[in-house]
Amino acid sequence: MSTEQGQRAIRCLVAKVGLDGHDRGAHVIARAFRDAGFEVIYSGLHKSPDEIVQASVQEDVDVLGISILSGAHDTLVPKIIDGLEEYGALEDTLVLVGGIVPEEDREELYEMGVAEIFGPGSSMEETIEFVREHVPRDR
Amino acid sequence: MSGDESLIDELLAGEHRALARVITKIENRSPGYRELVSRLHDHTGRAQVVGITGSPGAGKSTLVDKMAATYRERGETVGVIAIDPSSPYTGGAVLGDRIRMASNVGDMDVFFRSMSARGSLGGLSTSTTDAVKALDAFGKDRIIVETVGAGQNEVDIVRMADTVAVLVPPGSGDDVQMLKAGILEIADAFVVNKADLDGADRTVKELREMVHMRDASPMAGHHGAGAGPSGIDDDKNEDDDEERQPPIIETVAKTGEGVDELLAVLADHAEWLEATGERGARARRRYADEIRTLLRADSAALVEEELEARGGLEEYVDAVVARETDPYSVADEVLAPVAEAVRERRDARED
Lengths: 139, 351
Hints:
The complex is a heterodimer.
Chain A: E1 11-16, H1 24-35, E2 39-42, H2 49-59, E3 63-68, H3 73-86, E4 94-99, H4 103-112, E5 116-118, H5 124-134
Parallel strand pairs in A: 1-2, 1-3, 3-4, 4-5
Helix pairs in contact in A: 2-3, 3-4
Chain B: H1 2-12, H2 16-28, H3 33-41, E1 48-54, H4 60-73, E2 78-84, E3 93-95, E4 110-116, H5 123-138, E5 142-148, H6 152-159, E6 163-168, H7 173-180, E7 189-192, H8 200-216, H9 218-222, H10 231-242, E8 248-250, H11 259-276, H12 278-309, H13 314-321, H14 327-350
Parallel strand pairs in B: 1-5, 1-6, 2-4, 2-5, 6-7, 7-8
Helix pairs in contact in B: 1-2, 2-5, 5-6
């Protein structure tokens, strides 16, 4: 409450990339994050990986949640990860992927630096809990 | 601490990530953020700061997007700080202004940062002022601060801009009411956005009348009257510089119509500030405000610390409830040693 104390808030970017117009999930998660006390920046639809990188860097988010339901995760996610790396932002950004990712694609995404993948049926509580536990602390 | 030192060097060297990180530290009030901002100060004072305010849905973000794009076309770099409210219950917020920044995609020379109003009163204006300093020191030519215009907090925020533009959507008698209630005074320019909608003409007319009335009202001359020995001189002075009428510009932010004109008006105002010496006067006022705000916050924190050391407020509350003492006496008691120490030091200095 006091102005002198730190006023840290967890900042998240909820991002929709590529030609994928399904944003119900992104909206629901944005809302759940907000209600969990996070500051949520929503990217809007049809963003390019560059835009997502730009937004993540400028907003200095703790968490980047990429929502993909188009199946293009294997091309879009690497582009975002590379971009974050270029700005030296990858190591302290928690990158999450939400949407439909087939089992056989997952390992590759994890290796790239994606912290967790939340598929259909994931609960909000689970996701929020994951963020609280894994968000980079040393800021 | 050395990490912070290099952070400033990186910021001054033009690294976007460092700029983003510094703003985060400012927002979080992380340990050491004060030293960071102190170091920034020396590098500030170059950017032109424009405040944009207006009711939700007036088209602020869309207009800011087009303004930024136009500045970029002219080869100028832009920083934007967009402030959205946060929930008073959870502290959470959805910061949606970024969605409208469609014209500046992939252009890192438009540095857009969303901020939420994190709780504490007065804290937001300090964070915003400091974040503007970071953008200024970074070397941005233009800085735009965008905020919903309702209430003292927001007025405080835009007050730190060199030029304040107030957006008024057409056909909204309510907004004109809001303007009457206090935002009128801070506007250096009015923007009737969505000027292609029905009722825009009427809104322009209403605004014009209001601006006129402000000048004609007895209040307008009030602060001059009686200030000098001759009332006639006072009137003259006011005609010269005091009574600059805020222009009214019509824009359609969605298409970019009127944006050039708006920027021209803003540039005019910047020139006017320079020519009349008002820019310097405003800067002085701003720094005075800033110092006062910091002093207030810091002394409040000091008192909080003292309270903590005395075992918290609860016991005092108990005593007040039991009618053993009263709030004024408690305040005196807690503050007495602080006041004493301050006065002792002052006396020692004066000797």
